[in-house]
Design goal:
The structure is a single chain. By secondary structure, the chain is of the alpha/beta class. It has two domains: about 300 residues, Glycerol-3-phosphate (1)-acyltransferase; about 90 residues, Non-ribosomal Peptide Synthetase Peptidyl Carrier Protein, Chain A (Orthogonal Bundle). The chain is built from 14 helices and eleven strands. The strands form two sheets. It has a nine-stranded mixed β-sheet with strand order 3-7-6-8-5-9-10-4-11. The chain has a two-stranded antiparallel sheet with strand order 1-2. It is an enzyme of class 2 (transferase). InterPro entries: G3P_O-acylTrfase_chlp, G3P_O-acylTrfase_N, GPAT_N_sf, Plipid/glycerol_acylTrfase. Keywords: Acyltransferase, Chloroplast, Lipid biosynthesis, Lipid metabolism, Phospholipid biosynthesis, Phospholipid metabolism, Plastid, Transferase, Transit peptide.
Length: about 450
Amino acid sequence: MILSIPSTVKLYACSTTPRVSASHSSSRISCFVRSLDCAGARRLSRSSCLLFCASNPRDTADMLYERKSSSNVAPATPPVSSSSASDHRDVSPPPRSFLDARSEQDLLMVIQKEAEAGRLPNNIAQGMTELYHNYRDAVLRSGHPKADEIVRSNMAIVLDRIFSDVQDPFQFSPYHNAIREPFDYYTLGQKYIRPLVDFRNSYLGNNSIFNEIEKKLEQGENVILMSNHQSEADPAVIALLLESTSSFIAENLIYVAGDRVITDPLSKPFSMGRNLLCVYSKKHMSDDPKLIDMKRRANTKSLKEMALLLRAGAKIIWIAPSGGRDRPDPVTKEWHPAPFDSSSVDNMRRLVEHAGVPGHIYPLALMCHEIMPPPLEVEKEIGERREISFHGVGVSVEPAIDYHKIDSALDDPDEGKSMYSELLYSSICQQYDVLKSAIYGKQGFKASSSSVFLTQPWL
């Protein structure tokens, strides 16, 4: 999201936007790229035990709890057997909750029952039903032999969490720590997205640089990942592709997140499992003129929280300087990283430099729009329709880019800021093109370039 630092905030020392081609500024950039001293390998072996599927949704939900809570989870109701001599079939009672559901019909019945009882607003009930069907269709397309079980198990828990939050809404603070207990929302997000990823057609670019980043974090240094933004599934995709080689990054990454993912009932359970710095994007700052002042004050609090985090050191933060998700070109229908806002890049850079702790800014490219593509145009209203697909994804990173090496070669400070933003954006576009060739062009590892080495460490 775009960060706009008000003039009153001190830096602590302690859509349709036209797409910009990757070659747009190549002539300006090439002379700098050759002169930049960009460098990159250790992996943390801490494994994360992520659940995939279980035949009983309640058993799976209990596994996600650090301890069982009778106030949140009702006891399972055992099947009731008919004593009729003419009918010896097992007769199950109607499901009392989503976790008691034994079939698709049961899940949809609970949604309908809660809506009719007035405990679930009709628009949210409709969204939950649509989410179920779209998720089911996507997982079935994966061809997994237990696709039906995966869908029922995962969706039962997701619908249960959505419903629970509707009953008792969770309020996010400016800096939100991922909730791992008593319910593990992080693992829920991983478990939900995993069946949507075609790992055979997914790629990680420059794994050695992720290892380099982990070393810098171990040394107490800060790392910023300047990235494009494609879908609500971005955090899970990053974590899934890094979990086997860089689990520390996967679980400790802090995301600068817009208000929509912390207010939309269908997004909130997944957001609760991530470390978030919550901000209001420039794109939605003026949606309601009455809320502009409130949003600015909230952003000021989040910026102060970010400054304190960076001051403590050993933090890794992901931010999308475009201010929102990438969208396809309205004419060509081609996907491309949305252009960066140079002021957002510079604001983030200054926060890092004023932290009093060594910091590094890396360009990171994401390709996962097929999993959960955004609406074709930016929507003001909360409650967008969720399209879901099974597809290959990609994540890549290139060496950190040093702003001062660029600025020292130029006389105009404003030109240095612009050039720095262009360099980061150009790197992301070039990495994105490599991922695109590998995944959509079916070139696989052959798509690797001189600056992007593709691997599949999960296989």
